Description:
By secondary structure, the protein is mostly beta strands. The protein has helices at about 5-10, 30-40, and strands at about 15-20, 25-30, 45-60, 65-75, 85-95, 100-115, 115-125, 130-140.
Amino acid sequence: MASGDAGNVLAVLAPDFVSEDIDGKRQTGQQMAEAVTRLQIDRSKRTALTVITEIVISGDGDLADVEQRYQMTTTEQRENLPRKLLTKSRDRWINIAGQWRVASTTTLAIEMVTNEKHALRARLDPSNSDMVVELRKEIPAGGHAETA
């Protein structure tokens, strides 16, 4: 995903991949790959870090549930473009013929800082997209917001 190339995105996804956002909206792998390629961001001005916080192996060692945190910051200045983005997700990986692929991902929390606002959305119950809390803080012109 970091490259913005749909082929690279699809190469790590299982054939029946499903992405579920914080509100329960679902996307196929093809839809997600197309969305990644539509992102208009100067990747040379962006830094990103993914930290895996938990891995649970199950089945015959061919399934892995992974919880991860992703952080992206950019120095690119453009309206509505997040300066900082933090997400927490739960992913299911599956080993298909010796290749680990992402079968599903569910966004559990997202925090975003733009020039105008600082917003945090989180699921109170990871399995229920109807239980989402949202906090917002407007940022005064020329002001700064710090993330939690």
